[in-house]
Hints:
Elements: H1 12-21, H2 25-28, H3 30-35, E1 37-39, E2 45-47, H4 48-91, H5 97-111, E3 116-121, E4 133-134, H6 137-143, H7 145-149, E5 154-157, H8 163-167, E6 174-182, E7 185-194, H9 207-222
Parallel strand pairs: 3-4
Antiparallel strand pairs: 1-2, 3-7, 5-6, 6-7
Amino acid sequence: MTESVNTETLDLEAIVTYLRRHPRFFEDHPNLLKKLHLRHESGDAISLIERQNQILRQENRQLIDRLNQFIQVAQRNDRLFLKLQRLILELLPETRLNGLLERLQRGLQRDFDVHETTVILFDRAPGDGDGWLQTSRDQIAEAFPAVVDQGKAVCGALEPALTQLLFANTEVGSIALAPLTRDQAVVGVLALGHTSPEHFRSGTETLFLTHLAQVTSLQMERTE
């Protein structure tokens, strides 16, 4: 038996609540459904069914747009994974630290739209022609505490005062930094730079960079 209700004694909120609890209400009252009309954006009156169809079509378009976004992100991640895999395979055979860093820099600039690459080690002084810099742990920790103290990768715009510290005053607008480790202790950083301040944003995903830094750390332990 269909429930009856005197809508004249109910406020709007109560009517909405009732209809939500009885979604088949208009199926049980088809004559009422035919008499209900809504004002369309064009100014013409449309039936409730037409309006419902419009809402469903709009929601369907929104779902399709979201699905397309997910597909685009998945495709982008697939491309990044293949590039990362290629670079890692190039790093694995290297037994010299300078050779390792040269391959790392070449691969990052070739495949990942990176303009500058710097490897900074805290406890290993470079000689003439070596491909890394030495800076004190405290100096890097003061500038990037999340990287050194928490072992996290970070991205964002680069303050001009830090350009000399990381990139010897080259034109770098934004950076991505990841910790280099040995025995779970941070012993240096891998710094990537781009001329655009907008390229590496603070919310940029760092999963691939973190993985690359971990592989680089392991390879550094195996080099001469």
